[in-house]
């Protein structure tokens, strides 16, 4: 399956493109399954979060990660780092008793500016 570059702005809905092709945004692909999850659960990925995800996947790749769970304040994203693909997306309120297997890394992102300790 080929990935189709997203010609529209990254603030636009990720799933607004054709359902026949995954969406590529800033070098990160959302699989058909991930797009379906976003659509079904009325979830949004902002431009700010997209930038953080791209940076996070870059960092994970540099560390040798292959499969990672990226946690944000509202979402959990299972990512194939080698393929730069978001495999699935889960809203945090749906995470009760969830089991994630075959991941070698976990990363926690915060959208809020860091505060001194």
What does this molecule look like?
The chain has 117 residues and is α/β, with parallel strands linked by helices. The protein has one domain (27-108). The protein has two helices and seven strands. It has helices spanning 32-40, 47-62, and strands at 4-5, 23-25, 28-30, 67-71, 75-80, 85-91, 105-108. The chain has a seven-stranded mixed beta sheet. A hairpin with a 3-residue loop joins strand 4 (67-71) and strand 5 (75-80). Mean pLDDT is 78; it is low at 1-13 and 15-20.
Which features would summarize this protein structure in a list?
single chain; about 120 residues; alpha/beta; 7-stranded mixed β-sheet; 2 helices; globular; disordered N terminus
Kindly summarize this structure in a few lines:
The chain contains two helices and seven strands. It has one domain (27-108).
Number of strands: 7
Order of helices and strands: EEEHHEEEE
Query: What is the strand arrangement across the widest sheet?
Result: 1-2-3-6-5-4-7
Q: Quote the beta fraction.
A: 25-35%
Rg to the nearest angstrom? Answer: 14 Å
**What best-fitting shape do the alpha-carbon axes yield?**
globular
Overall number of structural domains: 1
Number of helices: 2
**Would you identify the regions where 5 or more consecutive residues have pLDDT less than 50?**
1-13, 15-20
């Amino acid at each position: 399956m080929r990935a189709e570059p997203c010609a529209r702005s990254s603030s636009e809905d990720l799933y607004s493109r054709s359902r026949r092709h995954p969406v590529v945004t800033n070098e990160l692909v959302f699989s058909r399954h991930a797009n379906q999850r976003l659509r079904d659960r009325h979830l949004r990925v902002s431009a700010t979060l997209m930038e953080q995800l791209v940076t996070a996947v870059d960092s994970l790749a540099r560390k040798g990660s292959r499969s990672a769970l990226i946690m944000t304040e509202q979402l959990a994203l299972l990512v194939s780092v080698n393929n730069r693909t978001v495999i699935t997306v889960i809203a945090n309120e749906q995470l009760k008793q969830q089991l994630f297997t075959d991941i070698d890394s976990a990363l926690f992102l915060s959208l809020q500016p860091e505060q001194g300790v």
